[in-house]
Design brief:
Helix content is 65%, strand content 0%. It is built from 4 helices and no strands. The longest helix has 29 residues, at 79-107. This is Cytochrome c oxidase subunit 7A2, mitochondrial.
Length: 113
Amino acid sequence: MLTSKRRRRRAEVRSSGVLVPDTDDQGYKKMFRHMIALRQVARRSICSSAPRQVENKVPQKQKLFQEDNGMPVHLKGGSADALLYRTTMGLTVLGVGYVLYELVKAAFPQKKD
């Protein structure tokens, strides 16, 4: 059975969505103050930051990836894409080879003397 104090507290939480600390619970009060302070610091640092001018590179990338030069789209990014592709294919071949090796090893177990 809930006490009237707990019922009131649950009603406050349901109505506002924010847990309001009890007056006799110092731990919640301290945590609540820290949360409010953190919210204020975060708001100040976001609002006071200088706007940065960022160059829009999307049209250049669209032009690069849409040109018809016979290359697959996953290699049009340059040498980093080619290296990533070759590394992925190499690891895939090694993984398939290892799986086949383990399957053969499991199919023909060693004889115990």
